[in-house]
Design brief:
There is one protein chain. The chain has helices at 22-31, 48-59, 85-90, 97-105, 124-132, 163-173, 189-200, 232-244, 260-268, 307-316, 333-340, 370-382, 402-408, and strands spanning 2-7, 13-17, 39-41, 63-67, 70-74, 107-111, 136-140, 143-147, 155-157, 179-183, 204-206, 212-216, 224-226, 248-252, 272-275, 279-283, 293-295, 320-324, 344-348, 351-355, 364-366, 386-390, 412-417. With 418 residues, it is of the alpha+beta class. The structure holds uridine-diphosphate-N-acetylglucosamine. Uridine-diphosphate-N-acetylglucosamine binds at residues 23, 26, 92-93, 119-126, 160, 162-165, 186, 190, 303-305, 327-328.
């Protein structure tokens, strides 16, 4: 088992280039099977979730090659419409393949997907979207069997703007004859990135980033070489780490416009942030000030994927902060570990009340999910003494060697097998 050992108290300074976004890469990998030609992803980060997704695509018959920071997917040999059980359970993004497999085969079978333990995470919105396209969906003993023989373009309305469901239905609709209009869609920037990728492959999609996406069906898509967008959550996490240590850090390859909600909270806490075209510099005060309230929301609201990291900052800030998690119903697992480090966090349902303390203290803690794990690392960087974050493999799902990023900025952090 992997762990990260941190000696706290080092101020982070310097520069780092942010890698491409996991949440852009995964749906793009799913989209690669919409064509028979090769897709090349430039600057693809080495993440555990990317490796899982590559394994699933291999099992479906794709050839995958990685090297020079690029990932190529050749779907010529694609010959299976059934998702491998064991892998699909490990990674929630396997569900994104439903739309693209259906588009290619007009049928698909998947197991209920896995992923981080941060709530129920049902897939009813995905299935409802597909049903609205005329797919016959049957749920039988843990399997979902989809028959897309009668799929047709049309209108799809989502009861809630789910990121994954929006992406899935975009992919399912892209090869259907006629126009499909998706309403109440998610507006996350990664959806814009998927639209750009699909359009670069020959699709005709517009509206990503607004409440309505329109897909004009095309007959076929072609291969492409594409650079996925930078990871706004990795950027936010590194800025939060700088904030925790009174640091001064400049990040490049940062989608500043997609981070306004995060920047606003960090400024509220006393940080100075200078935005450039695609870079951001954060200068932290000696001690952070509590933000009054933070509520997670679908984009452009505050991202749930930054909630844990902000909770860690609130734990060491002067004053009381309130955090409300509106997106996932069970996303405060990190609070208990922060309390082991001397924090004072009280969780009641979807709300956490954080009484900031003067100092956190190093402890043995355990990552329970991807972003919660990153939050414990941030706490460890600021804590007095030594922190060991166990189950660091969960952090590797979304950060390409977090210890290298932080080490380059001056942190004392190393990976160990325990
Ligand atoms: C994506 C991101 C994840 C991020 C989340 C919210 C990827 C690979 N992952 O996940 O990092 O935390 O967006 O920004 O892009 N829901 C349902 N039924 C469904 C689908 C979702 O009830 O069919 C609920 C979920 O349980 C959750 C909420 O809707 O409470 C948001 O989920 P969704 O937007 O779908 O997130 P993901 O696409 O899974």
């Amino acid at each position: 088992m992997n762990a990260l050992r941190i000696h706290g108290g080092r101020r982070l300074t310097g520069e780092w280039r942010v890698h491409s976004a996991k949440n852009a890469v995964l749906p793009i990998m799913a989209a690669s099977i919409l064509t028979g030609e090769t897709t090349r992803l430039e600057g693809c980060p080495e993440l555990v979730d990317v490796a899982y997704m590559a394994d699933i695509l291999r099992t479906l018959g794709c050839r995958i090659h990685s090297g020079d920071g690029a990932l190529t997917i050749d779907p010529q040999g694609l010959n299976r419409h059934e998702m491998p059980d064991a892998l699909a359970k490990k990674i929630r993004s396997s569900i994104f393949l439903l739309g693209s497999i259906l588009a290619r085969f007009r049928k698909a079978t998947v197991t209920f997907p896995g992923g981080c333990e941060i709530g129920l995470r049902p897939i009813d919105l995905h299935l409802s979207g597909l049903r609205q396209l005329g797919v016959d969906v049957r749920e039988e003993g843990g399997l979902i069997r989809c028959d897309g023989r009668h799929m047709r373009a049309g209108t799809v309305h989502f009861d809630y703007p789910s990121v994954g469901a929006t992406e899935n239905v975009m992919m399912a609709a892209v090869l259907l004859r006629g126009r499909t209009v998706l309403s109440n869609v998610a507006r996350e920037p990664e959806i814009c990135d998927l639209q750009s990728l699909l359009n670069a492959m020959g699709a005709r999609i517009s509206g990503a980033g607004t409440h309505t996406v329109t897909v004009e069906g095309v007959e076929r898509l072609h291969g492409v070489s594409y650079q996925p967008m930078p990871d706004r959550i990795v950027a936010g996490t590194l800025l939060a780490a700088a904030a925790a240590t009174g640091g001064d850090v400049r990040l490049t390859n940062v989608p500043c416009r997609d981070l306004y909600a995060v920047f606003t909270k960090l400024r509220e806490m006393g940080c100075e942030i200078n935005e450039e075209e695609s870079a951001a510099r954060l200068r932290a005060p000696q001690r952070l000030t509590a933000f009054q309230q933070l509520q997670t929301q679908p984009h452009p609201g505050f991202p749930t994927d930054m909630q844990a990291q902000m909770l860690a900052l609130a734990a060491m800030a002067k004053g009381t902060s309130v955090v409300v998690e509106n997106v996932f119903e069970n996303r405060f697992a990190h609070a208990g570990d922060l309390n082991r480090m001397g924090a004072n966090v009280l969780v009641n349902g979807r709300t956490a009340v954080v009484q900031g303390v003067e100092a956190l203290y190093g402890a043995h803690v355990t990552a329970r999910d991807l972003r919660g794990g990153a939050a414990l690392v941030i706490a460890g960087l600021a804590a007095r003494g030594e922190t060991l974050v166990e189950r660091a493999g969960l952090i590797d799902r979304g950060y390409e060697r977090l210890e290298d990023m932080l080490g380059a900025l001056g942190a004392d952090i190393r990976r160990e097998s325990v």
